[in-house]
Amino acid sequence: MTTATTTAPTVQTRVAELAATRITTWQKGYLRDNSRDVAALARLRRGAGRDAGALPDLWTLVDTTPLHAHDEGTRPLREEELVRAEDALHAVLTLWALHQQSRSTGMHRPAAPREPAGLGAAVRRLMPPGDIDEPIRKRLVRAGTAPDLTALSQRLRDLVVLLRRADIPLDYGLLAGQLYAWQWPGGADRVRREWGRSFHAWQPPVGPDPAPDPAAGESTTLETTLPSPDRDKDAS
């Protein structure tokens, strides 16, 4: 008789899952216009592109408690792992909050086998089918050559603004894991390759667009169609 063994999740996987769990909860509340979640997003947005230590007000929102737990099959993280995990979570949660601002559909969307939702694929969707928009491509390349996580977050912030205007979602759990990996020796090269594969993997849909989901509400695609400040729940 053999006993099945399970492999403990990597730290990168734990960071990715924690980010996805936190964002999914906030996103559901935000789309239901829950005042607590709307307020949380307003606080988080102020941290987009900024160093994690610059805004103590966000420490209660960027909650890494699960990473300290010593559950069966996991181990407590070392100090250097915790610091990198906290920084990755701060970057991703604040970028998502900016992305979700004034959107009536969820801007966090997990990738599917036939629908890649990584950063490269999302940026590719900003471009005309069959064509490469060089200014946008250069923004992705510039993000990929950032010297540190703070600079990377600032450059990703510019891309997120473009994605928000076009209502293009992103898998923020995947991105959180990648930003964690980015901070380790050799990690930046690996993440850049993943973004490149994602960029080339995306293909425009074939056939008619799917019918809109009545439960999702109408989504806006242009900055000029955003609600006016006096009616915008995100105006604060």
Write up what this structure looks like.
With 236 residues, this protein is an all-alpha fold. It has one domain (11-203): CRISPR-associated protein Cse2 (Peroxidase, domain 1), CATH 1.10.520. The protein is 50% helix and 0% strand. The chain contains 9 helices and no strands. The chain has helices spanning 11-31, 35-45, 65-68, 79-100, 119-125, 134-144, 149-165, 172-182, 187-201. It is globular and about 50 Å long. The termini are far apart.
Short description:
The protein has 236 residues and is mainly α. It is 50% helix and 0% strand.
Strand proportion: under 5%
What is the count of helical runs? 9
Contiguous runs where pLDDT drops below 50 for at least 5 residues: 1-5, 212-231
Largest sheet: none
Radius of gyration: 18 Å
Helix content: 40-55%
Kindly provide the name of the CATH class.
Mainly Alpha
Helix/strand/pairing category: mainly alpha
What CATH calls the topology is: Peroxidase, domain 1
Number of domains: 1
Q: Architecture, CATH level 2?
A: Orthogonal Bundle
Mean pLDDT: 84
**Strand count:** 0
Gap from first CA to last CA: 62 Å
**H/E topology pattern:** HHHHHHHHH
Going by CATH, the homologous superfamily would be CRISPR-associated protein Cse2
Shape descriptor reads: globular
Protein name: Type I-E CRISPR-associated protein Cse2/CasB
Biased composition (Polar residues): 218-227
Pfam families: CRISPR_Cse2 (PF09485)
Region (Disordered): 200-236
